[in-house]
């Protein structure tokens, strides 16, 4: 930090890493800063002269420059501070010249001498720039740029990055000076820089914005009307003129954007400008409505101002459609990429569904714009565009069902996608160039057909791919096929071994329990009666009479 002598109480940052801001106030680690500076700038080797002169003068120049930048920010609301700003810049330039003179000493190496010259040229160019002395400023900036480019080519890549950054910072200043001198090509370069990369930082960004606005305002003086949908509308609002003149530049910058991040930022810039313009037209519409009420004029036909409002709303809504389509295209590409990090959440079909919902909502609003209700061609074009985006939305809904393995639902949705796509192709024949700015539905049809075949195969293989979760052996599930990797392993689960004991029947024992209850028939007539012979028969038998 440093305390400005002429402005006591104004504390300027010098090293934010050593500055502590608490609720009690601003703190500064003085001893640590002193020791670090002494070790880095000569005192490690006992070179007090280097520490006393060079670093002190450099910090004086930086203190004056940083205060000037602070005043530059404050001068936007307090123009009187501009005089103090110029005073501080001049003081910074004087300190820079003093530093350059000190570096002429033979004790200073060649690299430091060159850096001191470049630094002095930069500060001198900043002073001339603020004084609008364009030629002198351009010469100073060019000298600074040349020195830094030579230094970048002579040292390591790490140092070269720092030098190239400084060259990029002062390049817009050089082009701005060239434009004010009369170089129209410089103007085109500045506008392209501002649109595609945001121009320079800080003060230069404001200068570029002011330059573009001023140039468009000059062109807007010659612009009196705009034609859209076969109707010519006068444009009397300056903000609307400036926006419509810059619309082509904005669209060109979006088309030439180097990456998706730049394209998204440009879309946001264009939408912000469009919203501001619509608000300005809306204010004029309120005034027009009040005038009609006073004059009791019938509001039948759509007025020119209302039609201009519809045109600007169309630009806004169509820009929203293109922006979301661009985001959807980027997400589709990421969706097809293999997921490397499982912990990181990747894009999902649901993200694309939300984008297409916004697109369809914007298109629905387009069909309700005032002044276009009877424009049947416009209504047909909007309806056709809605069919295209409905097809894509339906496709990603089907994809979301595929992820949860709901094959039948996904298959039905794929059929609906094909229905939408075929309807688009049949209706597009009657509308020339209606599909020019829309996604290719034929490509979608090809992809859906491929997905359908994959889906049918997955649906057939789904039961077969269910893994067995229990330990049921193969011999007990022969009627059902399941994917069991253990069957081709070292320990296939074919049968249970040893088998479980099973009960078997023993040898039967038969007991005749019914015999006691059986009544046999009489056999008396078949058995001899021993009692009838008696003793006579016995005697006959002894003596042989009975034989």
TrEMBL record:
InterPro entries named among the record's database cross-references: SRP68, SRP68-RBD, SRP68_N_sf
GO molecular function, one term: endoplasmic reticulum signal peptide binding
Recorded GO CC terms: cytosol; endoplasmic reticulum; nucleolus; signal recognition particle, endoplasmic reticulum targeting
Compartments, record wording: Cytoplasm; Endoplasmic reticulum; Nucleus, Nucleolus
GO biological process, any: SRP-dependent cotranslational protein targeting to membrane
Keywords, in A-Z order: Cytoplasm, Endoplasmic reticulum, Nucleus, Ribonucleoprotein, RNA-binding, Signal recognition particle
Coiled coil: none
Gene3D superfamilies documented for this protein: Signal recognition particle, SRP68 subunit, RNA-binding domain (1.10.3450.40)
Highest rank taxon of the organism: Eukaryota
Any Pfam family: SRP68
Family, per entry: Belongs to the SRP68 family.
Record protein name field: Signal recognition particle subunit SRP68
């Amino acid at each position: 930090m440093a305390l400005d002598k002429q402005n006591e109480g104004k504390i300027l940052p010098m090293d934010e890493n050593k500055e502590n801001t608490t609720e009690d106030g601003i703190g500064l680690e003085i001893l640590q800063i002193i020791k670090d500076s002494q070790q880095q700038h000569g005192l490690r080797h006992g070179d007090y002269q280097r520490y006393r002169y060079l670093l002190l003068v450099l910090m004086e120049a930086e203190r004056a420059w940083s205060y000037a930048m602070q005043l530059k920010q404050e001068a936007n609301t307090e123009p009187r501070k501009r005089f103090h700003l110029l005073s501080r810049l001049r003081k910074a330039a004087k300190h820079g010249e003093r530093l350059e003179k000190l570096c002429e000493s033979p004790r200073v190496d060649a690299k430091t001498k060159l850096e001191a010259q470049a630094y002095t040229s930069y500060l001198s160019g900043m002073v001339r720039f603020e004084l609008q002395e364009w030629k002198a400023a351009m010469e100073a900036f060019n000298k600074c740029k040349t020195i830094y480019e030579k230094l970048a080519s002579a040292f390591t890549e790490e140092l070269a990055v720092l030098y190239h950054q400084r060259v990029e910072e002062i390049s817009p200043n050089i082009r701005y000076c060239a434009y004010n001198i009369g170089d129209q090509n410089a103007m085109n370069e500045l506008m392209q820089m501002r649109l595609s990369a945001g121009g320079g930082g800080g003060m230069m960004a404001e200068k570029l914005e002011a330059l573009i606005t001023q140039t468009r305002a000059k062109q807007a003086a010659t612009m009196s009307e705009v034609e859209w949908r076969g109707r010519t509308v006068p444009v009397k609002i300056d903000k609307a003129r400036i926006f419509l003149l810059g619309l082509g530049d904005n669209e060109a910058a979006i088309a030439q954007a180097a990456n998706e991040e730049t394209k998204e930022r440009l879309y946001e810039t264009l939408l912000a400008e469009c919203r501001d313009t619509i608000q300005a037209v809306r204010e004029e519409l309120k005034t027009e409505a009040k005038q009609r009420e006073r004059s009791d004029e019938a509001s039948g036909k759509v007025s020119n101002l209302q039609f201009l409002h519809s045109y600007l709303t169309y630009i806004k809504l169509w820009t929203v459609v293109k922006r979301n389509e661009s985001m959807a295209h980027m997400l589709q590409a990421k969706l097809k990429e293999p997921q490397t990090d499982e912990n990181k959440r990747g894009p999902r079909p649901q993200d694309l569904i939300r984008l297409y919902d916004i697109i369809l909502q914007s298109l629905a609003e387009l069909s309700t714009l005032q002044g276009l209700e009877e424009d049947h061609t416009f209504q047909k074009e909007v309806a056709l565009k809605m069919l295209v985006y409905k097809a894509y939305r339906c496709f990603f809904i089907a994809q979301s069902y595929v992820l949860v393995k709901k094959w039948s639902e996904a298959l039905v949705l794929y059929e609906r996608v094909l229905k939408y796509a075929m309807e688009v192709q049949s209706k597009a024949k009657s509308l020339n160039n209606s599909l020019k700015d829309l996604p290719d539905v034929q490509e979608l049809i090809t992809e859906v057909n491929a997905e359908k075949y994959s889906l049918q195969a997955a649906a057939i293989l789904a039961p077969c791919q269910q893994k067995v979760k229990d330990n049921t052996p193969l011999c007990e599930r022969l009627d059902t096929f399941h994917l069991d990797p253990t069957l081709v392993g070292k320990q296939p689960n074919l049968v249970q071994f040893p088998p479980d004991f099973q009960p078997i029947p023993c040898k039967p024992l038969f007991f005749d329990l019914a015999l006691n209850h059986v009544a046999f028939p009489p056999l008396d007539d078949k058995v001899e009666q021993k009692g009838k012979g008696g003793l006579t028969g016995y005697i006959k038998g002894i003596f042989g009479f009975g034989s």
